Amino acid sequence: MLLLISCRNEISEIKALTDPQNLPIQTNYEAEYHYTVRGELRNRLKAGQIDQYGGEKPYVLASKGIELFIYDSIDSETAHLTAQNGKYIESENLIIAWGKVVMTNKQGNKLETEEITFLQDSSFIFTDKYVTITTASGVIHGKGLESNDSFTKYKIIQPTGDLYMKDEPQQP
């Protein structure tokens, strides 16, 4: 008995795999990048692997675990973000982090979500995913969030959960 096996590759699949646009132009392992504005450190990114891609819309893909440190104008760390992966699009000053995203601020508040977007030029972060925020006064859940980059002023778009407030004495 004779068995014939044939393999057929589509030209479009071959082109997609071999297209230089789909391959990184540079790869760094255990890398660290610094983002500055007028000589002042604003962000520091550490990742297990960072791939730079060229083309019409160049971007940087960070993987194998990332850490993003956010600084204020006096080089003091205001927030810290960890995630499994991230993407930086320089032409848009845009960072997208996804996969077990955890962000903490210097007050100890913690945000957990699956994806977050950071607009560097406006110091604005947001997500449309489910979020959990843990503070000293409780845990808040919801869907969607808008915040400043230091995660000190934030708004949950659709909040859920219990929040306990201290009773304040009433003024006459």
Please give the share of residues in helix.
under 10%
Strand content: over 45%
CATH architecture: Sandwich
What name does the CATH topology carry? lipopolysaccharide transport protein A fold
Low-confidence parts lasting 5 or more residues at pLDDT below 50? Answer: 1-6
Number of domains: 1
Average pLDDT, all residues: 85
> What Rg is obtained from the alpha carbons, in whole angstroms?
21 Å
Quick description:
The protein has 172 residues and is mainly beta. Helix content is 5%, strand content 60%.
Description:
The structure is a single chain. With 172 residues, the chain is mainly beta. It has one domain (24-160): Lipopolysaccharide (LPS) transport protein A like domain (lipopolysaccharide transport protein A fold, Sandwich), CATH 2.60.450.10. Helices cover 5% and strands 60% of the residues. It is built from one helix and ten strands, in the order αββββββββββ. The protein has one helix spanning 11-18, and strands at residues 26-37, 40-53, 59-71, 77-83, 85-89, 94-105, 110-119, 124-135, 138-148, 154-160. Strands 1, 2, 3, 4, 5, 6, 7, 8, 9 and 10 form a ten-stranded antiparallel beta sheet that branches. Strand 3 and strand 4 (77-83) form a beta hairpin. The radius of gyration is 21 Å and the shape is globular.
